[in-house]
Amino acid sequence: MPIPKRVGIVGYGHLGQFLEAAISKREDLEVAFIWNRSPGALSHLDQRLVCHDLTDFASFSPDLVVEVAHPDVSKQYGALFLKEADYLVGSPTALADAELEASLRTVAQSGTRGLYLPAGALWGSMDLRKMADLGTLQGLKITMKKHPSSFKLKSPLKELNDGVSGSAVTLYDGPVRGLCPLAPNNVNTMAAAAVAAHNLGFDGVNGCLISDPALTDRHIVLVEAEGKGGFRVCTERVNPAAVGAVTGNATYNSFLSSVVAAGAMGPGVHLC
Ligand SMILES: NC(=O)c1ccc[n+]([C@@H]2O[C@H](COP(=O)([O-])OP(=O)(O)OC[C@H]3O[C@@H](n4cnc5c(N)ncnc54)[C@H](O)[C@@H]3O)[C@@H](O)[C@H]2O)c1
Asked: Ligand 1 pocket check: which of 65, 68, 180 to mutate, most ligand atoms within 8 Å of Cβ?
């Protein structure tokens, strides 16, 4: 039997709890540690797995650290994680900070460990990456449509969304870089797209966020890619999701697949 990959989980909210439960059912993965900002939430766990201080994470010997807490974690600990383990950034909106993206890329490309970004709800990430590598990707727009209660937004988008009733409203339409700080929990898929489409990046990939009261049971993600000579691909992903859910059901399983895949590709920046 192969040796299980030891996974450190940083954050114990919806996604962290889902991962802990899913990992415990698998033979190819095991929990190395769990950290949470409020340690009280971890009191029911085997205390040998609880990391109280993230600067001490390496003592748990993780092969992979998975951030499922907040974009700020990468700013504070991303480079530290990458020195000792592969690092899967669950909140890739953090990379809209150009300085942070550059510094994590440098550490990932010069060391022995890889920086991994989950494809999340992004369909066709590998195709976008291939086109970006060849420089043939000329345009990319990601449109995300959700029920107003599924958004966790910052001002001024928050106020705009609070006023939505009846018909759908476009909250934002422009470069993904400007949207990430305003909707850090909702547009991880767009951030993953900006990393996959690296020839366009956060300034060149367009993000459109639509608040639609009619979407009571699903999230919708449209990917529109354009290439040379009239090449065009458009996909629509319809993901069942309860009213108020920030993350659609299928995205949890997609995230678990990313945890399984992360770590196999060596140094550098990878989508998985
Ligand atoms: N890439 C993807 O496909 C994808 C999917 C779902 C969620 N996410 C991201 O993963 C993260 C967790 O999602 P969730 O649904 O579990 O959220 P959640 O709100 O259920 O849990 C977040 C956890 O992190 C903690 N936390 C909040 N702010 C923090 C901070 N500044 N520093 C440290 N800890 C903090 C909270 O206490 C909580 O335990 C979010 O950033 C979310 O945007 C990504």
From this structure: 68
Domain 125-246 belongs in CATH node 3.30.360.10 = yes
Give dist(CA 60, CA 237) in Å, integer: 38
Cα separation, 186 vs 153, in Å, equals 8
Yes or no: domain 5-121+252-271 corresponds to CATH 3.40.50.720:
yes
Question: Rounded CA gap, 149 and 137, in Å?
Answer: 34
Sheet holding 86-89, edge to edge: 29-35, 5-10, 64-67, 86-89, 114-117, 268-271
Cβ of 16 closer than 6 Å to ligand 1, yes or no, is yes
State how far the Cα of 231 lies from the Cα of 266, in Å rounded to an integer. 32
Reported as a single tens digit per residue, the pLDDT across 71-118 is 999 999 999 999 999 999 999 999 999 999 999 999 999 999 999 999
- Ligand 1 in reach of 38 Cβ (< 6 A): yes
Give the position of tokens 């909210």.
Answer: 13
Determine contact, residues 220/144, Cβ cutoff 8 Å.
Answer: yes
Share above pLDDT 90 across residues of the chain, in percent, rounded to a whole number? 92
Domain range summary for the chain, segments of one domain joined by +:
5-121+252-271, 125-246
Q: How far is the C-alpha of 234 from the C-alpha of 112, rounded, in Å?
A: 37
The answer to whether 62 and 85 have CB atoms below 8 angstroms apart is yes
Query: At 245, phi and psi to the nearest 5?
Result: -70, 130
Mean pLDDT of 31-60: 97
User: How many whole angstroms from 13 Cα to the centroid of ligand 1?
Assistant: 6
